[in-house]
Amino acid sequence: MPPIFPETVLRTDRLLLRPFTAEDVEDTRAACSDELTQQWLPLPRPYSTEHAASWCTDVSHRLRTSGDGVHFAITDLGSGRLLGTVGLKKTDWPARVSEVGYWSAPWARGRGVMTEATRTLGEWLLGEQGFQRLQLFAATGNTASRRVAEKAGFHKEGVLRNAGHVHDGRVDLVVFSLVPDDLAGSREAEPEPLGIPVTDAERGGAR
Ligand SMILES: CC(C)(COP(=O)(O)OP(=O)(O)OC[C@H]1O[C@@H](n2cnc3c(N)ncnc32)[C@H](O)[C@@H]1OP(=O)(O)O)[C@@H](O)C(=O)NCCC(=O)NCCS
Question: Segment Disordered: which positions (predicted)?
């Protein structure tokens, strides 16, 4: 049996990172059907409720118990609403190296959520879990993802030519890394409270 990450809950002042549940299916379907998510991630197209249910109740959990990584639902600590996902994949246990991946829901973008979640996951991996390197790959054209990497304290290492694929074809990937020495660096300024709406009417309006 390969090593596996423990089932874990991580908290910040604004966010709760926890395993996916059946409660997350509808918001996951909406977020993974979103145009920007579909532009940069090679997810099924169209992305159905069945795809979302499989991810939330089965696949995301099996990827942990197989040793590949661990996947978190990022939720608003105040309202409980799903804001996105951040996870580890392709973990190389002997080398103590893993790779981070993420999407944020359209209703949560531009508020520093993914920067905060990625930094928190990096601190857990390189601290408590004793890992030596967290890698992040972003398409050269994916400005928001590159910005998340920089703001979370990752270092840009270079460009991997023709290394990725999205629905529109091949892409070059910028490779970033976070290593234990980087964690001495301070976070950016304290983020603003989220104020994510929770009522059905508000939710409908946000999509
Ligand atoms: C990448 C993504 C996760 C960022 O999530 P987020 O919660 O909005 O991230 P943050 O708010 O922490 O930071 C986003 C940063 O990108 C910036 N940004 C977003 N779109 C931008 C654009 N088109 N041009 C320039 N900057 C942009 C934001 O302004 C912000 O930077 P700032 O704080 O300096 O202003 C989100 O855009 C997403 O889900 N994209 C689709 C899926 C995806 O690309 N996943 C990653 C694959 S590698």
Answer: 186-207
Measured from CB, residues less than 6 Å from any atom of ligand 1 are: 36-37, 40-41, 102-104, 108-115, 138, 142-145, 147-148
Q: Which residue's CA is minimally distant from atom 24 of ligand 1?
A: 143
Evaluate whether residue 4 is within a structural domain.
no
Domain that residue 162 falls in:
10-206
Closest atom of ligand 1 to 115 CA is 12
pLDDT 10s digits, 174-183: 999 999 999 9
pLDDT tens figures, 131-166: 999 999 999 999 999 999 999 999 999 999 999 999
The rounded Å distance from CA 148 to ligand 1 centre is: 6
Residue type, 60: S
